[in-house]
Each structure stands twice: as C-alpha cells, then as structure tokens.
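Repro case for the chain-ordering regression, as requested:
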Amino acid sequence: MGLIDKPQKGQSDLFVTALIIFSVIYFAQTFFVGWFLIDWRHISSAIFFFGFEVIFIGIAFEITESLFAIFAGPMETPRLNTLLEEYPPVALVMTVCNDSRPSRWATLPQHYPHCDIFILDDSTSPQEQSLVDQSGYTVVRRPEKLSYKAGNLNYWLNNFGKQYKYFVILDSDSLITPDFVQELVTFAEHPSNEKIAIFQSLIYPVEAETMFSKVLGSMARLRFYISERFANRTGLMLSWGHNQLLRTQAVLDVGSFCEQISPEDSTLSLALSQAGLSVRLVNVASYDTDPPHIFAFMRRIVRWAGQTAEVFSLPWDGASLRLKLLLCQHFYTYTVHNIYIALLLYTAWGFDSRGISPIKLFQFIGNNFQEMWLWTLVLAEMTLLWLAQFLLRAYLGYRAGLSLKDFLTHTLLATALHSFIGLAVDYSIVKVLFGKKVIFKPTNAKEIGIQNSLFDFCLDISFWFFIGVAILLGMGLRNHLLFFSLNGLWIFFWGIAPFTLLFFHRDQLPRG
Amino acid sequence: MKRLPRATLRTLFLLLVSLLLLPALLFSFIGFFRANAQEKSLEQVRLEIDEINQEINQSVISPFYLSPRSSDPCIPNTLEMVSYPEDWYIENRPSNDSYFTCEWAYYKNGALVAIDSWKDYDRKLGRRKYFQDEFHPIAHDTFFVLDNLNRVKCIKQREYEEFEAVECYAESGTLISIDPINSVFSPLPPMLYWFAYR
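-- result from build under test --
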C-alpha cells in the first residue's frame, strides 16, 4: 500500500487556540461594554448588560469561527493512494421510512469491488414497501419498528454488521458518486486515522426544485469552508447521520446506536468519544436534498431542536468535553432568540422616549451629545460588531466561491426563518425538557403533508403576530426611538418575516 | 478540571453559562459599587452647591432675581441696588459668552464661589456656575431649559462637571428628577444569528 506523503504542516490541534481566541473576544467585549457603556445606576442598563452578555457568547463564537476560517488552513486528513491493495468489505445501507426515492437507487452501485447494498426499510405503507421491494437490492425489514433510525440500523448491525469492516449510511434522498465508497475507504484504511471512527463527507444540496430549497442550500459551500477549517481543526465535529463511512467494529464496541433517544448521530459521536474515537469531515462530496418549503423546514428544525435537548437527558459520563461543549453551543443557538425577543419587548416598553420627536432626533443627539454619548456609543459599538460579523461572513462566502447575491438572498431568508420559527422551536425543546420524547418524522416522508406541520405553523404565526403587536404597541406608545439605527433594520426584517417567506414560496403558490 | 469530562450536559451547560456570566457579575458588582460611590460623592457636591446657592439667595438681596425686572443687571452702577454681607464681594463684568451680556462673580472671603450670567436678550438670569477652591468649576444651573418643541422642559437644570448627571429642579428648588436623558437609553443589539440555520 502506498501512502500519500502529504506534509502535515500546520495541522496541529487548534482547540486550545480557539478557546483562547473565543475568551479574548468575549471578555474584551464584556469589559468594553461593562466598563465604558453601562450606566450602573439604572437597573434597566444592568438588565440589558446581562442580556447582551448572553448574546455576546454567540457573537464571540461566530467571530472565532470566521477568524479560523480566514487564517487556518483546512484539515488535511491523510489517505492512501486510490489504488488499494486490499478491499475490505463495505456495506452500503440506505435507510427508508415512507420516503423512498426510486431515482436514487440507480446511483448506488459503486466501483469499489467489495460493496454490498442494503435498503433498510422502515416504511409502514404497503405501497412504499412494494416499491422498495422493486429496488433490486437486499431489503431488510425488521419485525418491530422501534427506536426509529437507530433501531433500524441496529437491526441490520446485529444481523449483518460483523461481515463488514465498514458500512456507509445513506438517507433515502442521498446521492453519491460511483467512487464514494472507494474514496472514503482510502481515508479509513490509512493507519494514522485509526482513531477516527466516522468519516463524514461534505453533503451538498442537489435537485433543488423550489426557490426555497435553492436559496436554503446556497450556503453549503460556505458552511463546509468554515467546518473544514474550524470544526475539523478543533475537534468540534459531530456525525451528521448520513453520507458517511463508519468502522463497524467501533460502532459495535460502543453498543451500536443509542435507542433510548432519537438523535442517533449525536449520541453515536458521544459514545465513540467515550472510547477515544472521533468524527472527521473529509473532502469527499456527496449530495442530499434540502426541504422544499417552510413546512418541511419547520419539521426538520423543530426535530433537530428537540433532539438536541434530548441528548441533554443522558449523562454521557466520560464523553469528549469538546463534543459536549459543541452540543451546549447547539442548544444555545436554538434558544438564544428568546433573549432577543425579551430584550426587544423590554426595550419597547421599559424605556420612554415620548419627549423626543423622531424628526428632531438627530438635532436632539447633536444638542445633547454630552449626555447622549453613552447611548450612541452602545449603538455604534453594536453596529460595528454586527458589521464585523456580517463582513467576515461575506468575505468568507467570497472565498468559498459564493456570489454576493446568493449570500444576501440567503441572509434575507435565514432572517425570516429565524424570526418566524421561534415558538415552535421553544415548544419542541420545552416538551423534551419535561420528559416527552421526540417523535421522529423524516423531513421528506411522503405521508406527511402540510397539514401535519399546521400546528407548528399556527403556533409561529400567532407568536409572530402577538409579539409583533406587543412590540409595535410599545414602540408606538412608549419608545419610538427603537426604530432607529440597526434596531429598526432588524425589527423591520423581523416584522416582515411572513411576507419574506411568502416571497420565497412564490413559485409554489397556486396560480390564478 | 479533571471532573469536567464526567459532567452531564445539563451541568456543563449551566456551568458554562455561569462561568461566562461571571465577568458580567463581577462588572455588575464593580459597577454597582462605583455607581454607589459616585452617588455619595455627587450627594456631597450637591450639598455643597445647595449651600452656596442658599447663601447667595439669602445673603445677596437684589431686585434682579424677581420677575418682571425694572432694572438692567448689566449697567455699571447696578450693584448699588444690591445689598450683601460684609464678607461678600460681587463683581459686575461683561460676559465672554455671546449668549450672555454680563456676569456677576460672587466672592466670599475673597474666594470665587459662583458666577451668575445674565442673558443678552431679556437680561434674565440664564446660568449660575459654582466653584470650589476658587478656580475649580463643579456644576452649573441653567434656567428655563427648553425642549425640542420650545416648551419649558425644566425650570432649573443642573449639570455637574465631574458626574454624568443632569438634574431638574422645580421653581421651589425641589429636585424633581435626575438624569432624564436615561429614559431614552434603549440600545438593542442587531440580530446576529443570520447564519444559525441552514
């Protein structure tokens, strides 16, 4: 076997460096605002400071990520020459649950000589089952459909797993090239990678048929550009659950997939880390589809949020601290919008700017600058911070080959999504924290129509409406200055969220 | 530190948030004590100013403080109409500020304690500036402060040199509010999570 002798320059573990940079950014920000900007005589300022502090955590994390993506090189995982001397047996398993895509089956055959293909069918519909039976591959159906995807995969592992050194997990919408297995095996077979249990491919969006999914998927390149330089270099990498190659024995050694809770990917990453094994993102392309509309997107994001909360219900004694920190960061991103909303409501009602006419605001600032400097400084500081964050991402998008138009369009859609889906995400998390289990529904399951997401959708419409009315009333009656600076900009985007979403669904609206 | 990998995710999350909020808590304590100390110093200065103010109001008897005025406070012989104690001395001099015509500098035992500035247009008392140790300005009162709609916002507004505080007093001299500017202090960070979701 010939090894590729790639120089491993600058491939050191950057976790501690990342931690230091994050801390420096966070504490510098805390110091600047706490020392210079906050007027500690007023309780409102103190409340704001603590709100800002929670938000600064995310800002510091994102800026750290961006800086790494700019200055650190991508992780170069060693691999063997593509001409392997041995071809260890590999199983390619595609999980299906009422969401089969027959068009994908033709793309499964591999150039790799020792690869068997299985379809693990959890479909309940007889039509779906008979469709899957026509795939031409080995179809595995378990008698009892328990524990969702984890149960499905474990059934296969228990019955077939030991025959294969590696197995590849694909979702029903996964699309791979004929060299996919071959390429991943060259990474897995390299002796330096024996502590890596999961080789995760880069999953690009494909077959985006709606405007919504096209825009949603446009950020993939930027996301991978950052992950290869930050997540991979710092060890902050969790399994993405599909389009990946796994070491069968490693998975069996940790007791296979966790069936207690539904997120089989994150739990496997944690379990593997308990055994000192890790997940690595490797430069092999694969594809899947993004949700075609807001309803499918909500189903996915609500499930992800609930699943993240579910992971918190188990102890994970001895699992990698890095992965635990990463999960804490995920939990944080699913909940931080509540701080924004709380601050927004508080600022709309808690401050009184009725004495100042908006028309004369600038005159007022000019005349009272001696007293207003604190106020303007806070706004200026926040604006600069936001601009720095925004421009860093835009620059990285440019480096990753993303057009500015795509970047801005995605930003507009992401803002609307973020503004709109808060309550459904909260509801999903709270349910789990109170002991309810996540009901796993595949994003693209055929039997799930729009009506199944209607509850979440109504929840979000009511949330948007009531919060919107409360904020606008506060702004109208108490603090109209809230409209100014970037506040106004993002409140505007927040306010028009449903219309923005409608705009991105215009190709799916009934004609006439 | 060795126990960290054994911590549950819930513990770790709470630990992390607490750890990250520690500096905020530290700043709140420091900030609170600084604000308290400042408040005490301000209280001290306020008392000192009130004392000077009261002394001027009680000791210096003049028709010029009353409205409507029949005499111009800025004509050279105007001080003849003013009576004040023996240890006081008042100097009537032209003002360098174009907004005012003249000013009265009050000296007590030879040391400057305050300066009254009389307005150019109607010769009303526009500003009273207070001094400590003769040359060190500590605060000034501005009379009949208008808002942006030209309405009287405050009969007497006091601003301190070393404290970021603006006080508003009623005609009777009662302190009505401190720092009304704070009511518009309502910053909000722009939304920074535009990239959180796919």
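Ordering looks correct now. The first strand of chain A starts at residue 90 and ends at 96.
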